[in-house]
UniProtKB/TrEMBL annotation:
Molecular functions per Gene Ontology: nucleotide binding
Membrane keyword on record: yes
Residue ranges annotated for the GFO/IDH/MocA-like oxidoreductase domain, each copy included: 149-264
Annotated protein name in UniProt: Gfo/Idh/MocA-like oxidoreductase N-terminal domain-containing protein
Membrane-spanning intervals of the chain: 364-382
Family: Belongs to the Gfo/Idh/MocA family.
Length: 383
């Protein structure tokens, strides 16, 4: 196939942080190709600093600066794989130069920075999407269909999510996600993004009325969040909680309880098996006679696929870009809206933590004062 006749979307990658998965997905996709990779510094004229060749994946061009890649007229879309603190500058610049933009999550440090990116994309008529892979897996659509089933699931009442993984000492010392100047959100931005996003997904992207950090937030010496949780209340009887951490054993749990049924996925962020992703549903369960158990038992549903969810994401993004580039279709505004709402809730959790809502009492006097205050309030209420 002649290059000028190649219908695939040409990707450029800014940065070299954890690009292997996305690079392989682009290589595996029939709708995209990896055209260029850029790093800000070079070890040699042929290889960007920090770039480790990905087995089975090659880029046509390797650039020693981000500007050079953005100046390449052949690049259709850019994946921004930089520390979060640098997303706003380079993603917005890519958009202003007419490149469609996919940004690693979290896409920004706060809503203001994300809005800068989104407005640049809207102003240039290019597609924006953050790289939250699980939203593109066919299992996600199947789970959503169950949550929307009024007979089987009913009205949503509770949502509880947990994304945790115990990192190495080297990670805790050197990874960009523990550095306040590179990614000040820490575990909240990395693992918490999935938790908050899944809750909003279940709520049809309604925003919560209140956001309250749970006690027990853990910080590193630089003040970056290593572990935290929060409660999101949506009004009515719908309440949700989440926990995210760099310090606990691996979990990727999602539990949604409705008035008639429940749903659970033990690996909603990343399936245990790339070829077969499962989830469990239960409807109308009740105690057996004599409390000998309860029934019916949860039912396993398996969704078989022939590719990884990251490939589904690349193909969906490429399809949107192709529609804009070649068919005059408008960018899909669903994706920036999802990102902005998720970022807003992240901001609210961070604000609650900063105000002390997620901090534990660090001394006995503080704990005694809290107990004393609670006793006085109860006494006055009884009067």
């Amino acid at each position: 196939m002649a290059e000028k006749d190649d219908p695939r979307i040409k990707f450029g990658i800014l940065g070299c942080i954890s690009i292997a998965r996305l690079a392989r997905a682009i290589a595996s996709s029939t709708s995209a190709t990896l055209h260029a990779i850029a790093s800000q510094q070079q070890h040699s004229a042929d290889e960007p600093a920090g770039f480790s060749p990905v087995e089975g994946v090659t880029a046509k061009k390797l650039y020693g600066s981000y500007e050079e890649l953005l100046d390449d007229e052949e690049v259709d879309a850019v994946y921004v794989a930089l520390p979060t603190s640098r997303h706003a500058r380079w993603a917005a610049e890519a958009a202003r130069r007419g490149k469609h933009v996919m940004v690693e999550k979290p896409p920004a440090l706060d809503l203001e920075a994300l809005t800068e990116i989104v407005e640049a994309c809207e102003g240039s008529g290019v597609q924006f999407m953050d790289a939250t892979m699980w939203l593109h897996h066919p299992r996600t659509a199947a789970m959503k269909a169950f949550l929307s089933d009024q007979e089987a699931f009913g009205e949503i009442k509770e949502m509880h999510t947990s994304v945790t993984f115990k990192v190495s000492p080297s990670f805790l010392k050197n990874d960009v996600r523990v550095k306040p100047d590179l990614d000040a959100l820490g575990a909240l931005g990395d693992a918490g993004w999935y938790c908050i996003g899944s809750i909003l997904w279940a709520a049809d992207y309604r925003l919560p009325r209140t956001v309250t950090a749970l006690p027990g937030t853990v910080f590193n010496e630089a003040g970056v969040i290593m572990s935290c949780g929060a409660s999101l209340q949506f009004g009515g009887s719908f309440v949700s909680t989440f926990q995210c951490s760099f310090l606990s054993s691996m979990t990727m749990d999602m539990v949604a309880n409705g008035s008639k049924g429940s749903l659970r996925a033990c690996d909603f962020v990343l399936p245990f098996d790339e070829a077969r992703a499962s989830y469990y549903t239960s409807s109308g369960a009740w105690f057996l006679e004599g409390l000998a158990g309860w029934a019916p038992s949860p039912v396993e549903h398996a969704v078989a696929t022939d590719r990884q969810q990251v490939v589904f994401m690349v193909e969906e993004f490429s399809s949107l870009v192709k529609g804009i580039k070649r068919d005059g279709v408008k960018p899909d505004l669903k994706w920036p809206e999802i990102s902005q709402k998720t970022q807003l809730v992240v901001d609210k959790v961070k604000l609650s933590i900063d105000r002390g809502g997620g901090r534990q009492c660090r001394n006995l006097i503080g704990l005694v004062l809290l107990v004393f205050f609670a006793i006085i309030v109860n006494f006055l209420f009884l009067l």
